[in-house]
Design goal:
2 copies of one chain form a homodimer.
Chain A: H1 10-23, H2 36-43, H3 47-60, E1 63-66, E2 70-73, H4 78-88, H5 92-113, H6 116-134, H7 138-155, H8 159-182, H9 190-201, H10 205-226
Antiparallel strand pairs in A: 1-2
Chain A binds a DNA duplex through helix 3.
DNA sequence: AATGGACCAATCATCCTACAACTTTCATAG
DNA sequence: CTATGAAAGTTGTAGGATGATTGGTCCATT
């Protein structure tokens, strides 16, 4: 039996173990991980090896160290961090166009693939939007609105699409809040939600796509008006 | 002058310097970087500090170390590495649906924004496809075909969209080659290229979107036929 | 009791030395 | 000329020492 160079370096092994611990929620986000001395024993490696492992996860955005205090878990997903960092440096309107691309396709796929259960969830989400709008609770409205759109993408049944969509939303969240919160009149266009919902109910992919286009176009218009 | 907590750790400073060196092509991709001893002097830090900096860049995918040999530059873009790694583990058809989303939006935007110069580039690209098809040169055809589609996205004038599209193409490249290379008859559907080209020429966004849908649907059908 | 300061313990940051493991180079024996 | 193996160069791992920062305790002063 020949052992080729398949031996991972100690640092890489420690990195993978820590990634596992984070991904499997053994170490929760926001909580401190054990101090270096304890981890040295646990993984049975030297301080240098452990620190190099931790450092690479810090740079990846999964961990955060503070001298004198300790090391905390910052996120569970490396791609998310890289993506978010990248999107932060990108033009809002470019991001919005990509979101439009993803959401249109998502709506079209949702129209074809949605289950009855998903449909009723969507109906409930729209109801929540209406209620928040009637109560003039803008903050709640934004949350319920985003939840509705995310549910649509979920109904598309494509995990990659959903993940990328959520990153887009994350990057655009501040703009979304700004637009909804700052418009002098809080006019809720209920028909746009209903249009999309009906299209998905009737499994009309073309109409679903169009209603997303209208929604994004309206949002873009408002956003441009703000940036005077 | 108030210095807040903007004091970066030594390791982070070294990381940023190295990132700069890589990004500005001082250290070319594929080439070895100076050995640790030399870098210790250059950055005036201890070996531990330097190694932690290098390790985090290794984990990010920018560098690659080999014991006994040295450290080489692997890539200039961290997001690209994370993205590619992620897409490798994703279902091909899910990736294809996201590509479809991006390419449809790209085509629609290209129809609205394309310049005359971009239009003539697109025409030339289609000609190249035709020539490769007539010569029965499948490899060249695939290359020219991908080039045409990338030119379309470029004409959309959205850098984020272009970057994400290129990652999708990269992840799908092997499937694209497989489909084109393995079909018993090499039937080139010239009208699909022409349809898209005409739509962009006439600045018809709806038609551009539809022709992309047709193209992707055809490709998906062929790919599914292969995976028996 | 509330405030502020001195002090202390825990923790991470950096540096140092030493050796192990691996790769490359190159002189030398055959 | 080829093959061998010693030597030099490079990264990997270990362990110890000290500095810097943080968070908290305790106590004197108000």
């Amino acid at each position: 039996m020949i052992r080729k160079t398949n031996r991972l370096s100690l640092v890489e092994q420690v990195v993978q173990q820590i990634e596992q611990l984070i991904e499997h929620k053994q170490w929760a986000v926001g909580e401190k991980i054990p101090p270096e001395a304890q981890l040295m024993e646990q993984f049975d490696v030297s301080r240098n090896t452990l620190r190099e492992a931790i450092r690479s996860l810090v740079h990846a955005g999964l961990l955060e160290t503070k001298q004198g205090s300790g090391t905390t878990v910052r996120s569970t997903n490396a791609l998310e961090v890289a993506f978010t960092r990248h999107l932060e440096r990108t033009n809002v309107f470019e991001t919005l166009e990509v979101r439009s691309a993803l959401e249109q396709e998502g709506a079209a796929l949702a129209a074809r693939r949605r289950t009855d259960e998903q449909l009723s969830e969507l109906k409930e989400a729209v109801d929540n939007c209406v209620r928040a709008a009637e109560a003039r609770d803008r903050l709640k409205f934004v949350q319920k609105d985003l939840h509705f759109h995310t549910l649509v993408i979920q109904a598309a049944n494509n995990s990659l699409l959903l993940e990328m969509y959520e990153h887009m939303i994350e990057a655009l969240s501040s703009s979304i809040f700004d637009v909804t919160m700052s418009s002098e009149t809080f006019d809720y266009d209920e028909e746009i939600h209903n249009e999309l919902l009906t299209a998905i109910e009737q499994q009309d992919a073309v109409r679903a796509r169009q209603s997303v286009q209208q929604y994004i176009a309206l949002f873009t218009k408002r956003l441009k008006k703000m940036n005077i």
